Amino acid sequence: MKRRAFLRRTTSAAGSIVGLALMATAADPAWAQVTVPLEQRGTFLRTNQDSPIAPVILSLGTLGLAPGDLIRIRILGEYTFNSAGAATRNSCAVFSSSTTLLATNVQARVPGAVDAGIEFMSAPTFHGSLPTDIPEDFRTGDSVSLDHADVVVPAGAAYLFIGAHDSLYGDNQDTDNDFRAEITLLCAASSGACCDSIDFNGDGLFPDNQDLEDFLSVFGGGSCSTGTCGDIDFNNDGLFPDNADLEAFFSVFGGGNC
């Protein structure tokens, strides 16, 4: 039986917090999937001479998620980001130990940020070209082919912030209100080890030979072709590099279990 998800939106001083009450039978191994609306002007990144709003903030506890769980964050719909009406899924997310969100002129606006996922460099502000990048966040969608991120919930995380990624937020629009995030529990840590995404190099193509080549390269202390490879602890058991990571990668790469 699938769990039914009921959406309840609440707000707080920290920003827009979405609470999700999940109901299921005791026999269900895990809730399957839930979809939440996103704000096209919502961001946890620094802005300048702009009019952003707070991003959506999800409580992991309310979602029933725990550190070690492997989840997929898929971006649905799109929003327009300029006067020409160009559309995009550009978005990013960050885990945090709290709901605290600092002022928009602060670069590290999420003081409780917890590193996870594949790092990326966020764009500078449109006005003033001020840096916005923080090391803990990760991309969830772009204008070309990327529409999701698979990520393991890190230790110490209690909340998930999801926002748009842009250099100027004030002109963003979502006239059909379809900009959303679909969150799926792929593997519950309580059921055993949860492996990282097979898209090891973060290029949006998987499984492909480049993922295999990059994993073996990084495992041996070499470089990553994209510069955005995941960590070598593929099975997230805290031991790396070890043969179990190799075995897990080849198993998942071939369509098997972690």
Q: Name the helix and strand elements from N-terminus to C-terminus, one letter apiece.
A: EEEEHEEEEEEEEEHH
Structural domain tally: 2
Q: Could you give the distance between the termini?
A: 24 Å
Structural class by secondary-structure content? mainly beta
What fraction of the residues are assigned to beta strands by DSSP?
Answer: 25-35%
Broad shape: globular
Give the mean pLDDT.
87
Radius of gyration based on Cα positions: 18 Å
The biggest beta sheet reads:
7 strands, mixed
Number of β-strand runs = 13
Low-confidence stretches: 1-14, 19-30
Number of H/I helices: 3
- Percent helix range: 10-25%
Oligomer status: single chain
Q: Which key phrases capture this entry?
A:
mainly beta, 2 domains, 258 residues, globular, seven-stranded mixed beta sheet, four-stranded antiparallel beta sheet
Describe the protein in words.
β1 and β2 (15-23) form a beta hairpin. The chain is globular, with a radius of gyration of 18 Å. Mean pLDDT is 87; it is low at 1-14 and 19-30. The protein has three helices and 13 strands; from the N terminus they run ββββαβββββββββαα. The relative contact order is 0.19. The protein has 258 residues and is mainly beta.
Summarize the structure.
Helices cover 10% and strands 27% of the residues. It has helices at 60-63, 209-219, 243-253, and strands at residues 4-12, 15-23, 33-37, 56-59, 70-76, 79-80, 87-88, 91-96, 113-114, 138-141, 148-152, 159-164, 180-187.
Any chance you could write out the topology, listing elements then pairs?
Blueprint: E1 4-12, E2 15-23, E3 33-37, E4 56-59, H1 60-63, E5 70-76, E6 79-80, E7 87-88, E8 91-96, E9 113-114, E10 138-141, E11 148-152, E12 159-164, E13 180-187, H2 209-219, H3 243-253
Parallel strand pairs: 2-4
Antiparallel strand pairs: 1-2, 3-13, 4-12, 5-11, 5-13, 6-7, 8-9, 8-10, 8-12
